Amino acid sequence: MQQTINKEITIKGVGLHSGLKSVLILKPAEVDTGITFRRSDVVGSNPVKALYSNVVDTRNCTCLGDGKGNLISTIEHLMAALSVLKIDNVAVEVSSPEMPILDGAAAKFIEAITSAGIKTQYLPRRRLKVLRKVEFKDDKGGYISIEPAKDFAIDFTIEFPSPIVGHQEFNASIDLNLFNQEIAPCRTFCEKNQIDYLQSIGLIKGGSLDNAVVLDGDKILNEGGFKVPNECVNHKVLDAIGDMYTSGYQIIGRVTALKTGHYHNNQLLKALFADTANYEII
Length: 282
Ligand SMILES: [Zn+2]
Hints:
2 domains, five-stranded mixed β-sheet, lpxc deacetylase, domain 1, alpha+beta, seven-stranded mixed β-sheet, 22% helix, Ribosomal Protein S5, domain 2, binds zinc ion
């Protein structure tokens, strides 16, 4: 059956890039309404569905547009939490153009939603079953595909120049237990020299060692190091789970990704939905 949250949830934090305070409110929602986002600070702003077709920017995060020029960016970590908790319907309101970054991962969202509770609704959930393989590749070696499988699985490989990251792989079926232990705590990561550049152009004003892993050559600047051994690839898996939920469905299929990001995830969904023979809704 479809599910929503038991009661309203309020979460406060700062946006990663703007550094602005951001208040996030999650409200229970009716069956078949899906996940919607609305800017509570913009008069007359309409809710926008968290669908791949409403994504307007994928450069540093997944960003929704409401069609009137209002943006809601960095939806992917919350979307990943909603996906693994199997929440079908929730109305999200956010008081700034950016979602609060919190822990840079999904653990805070899981915690907040779990403590509010999950409510079963009266209509069955429909899922998307992949029927044939669909691929997307860029011209820099980035590759992503989705193909038929018995459940939702991800096979992800990253290759980073930083010796402390290097080659990392993830390969597993996604369930809540695995997500909580190995994926939910995994933070966004970047190189120290990237930070210097991003700060110089006025970004990552809300970034800190509390919400991002910072790599400097063969060192990690965060006290305590990585939270899980393959934190970097696992964060990419976290992003992919959130982005795949912008299909609007729980997916039955295997995603295989090599050196990809939000852009590739979005292009893959566009390719998947371009031909109704690629999938069926069950
Ligand atoms: Zn992320």
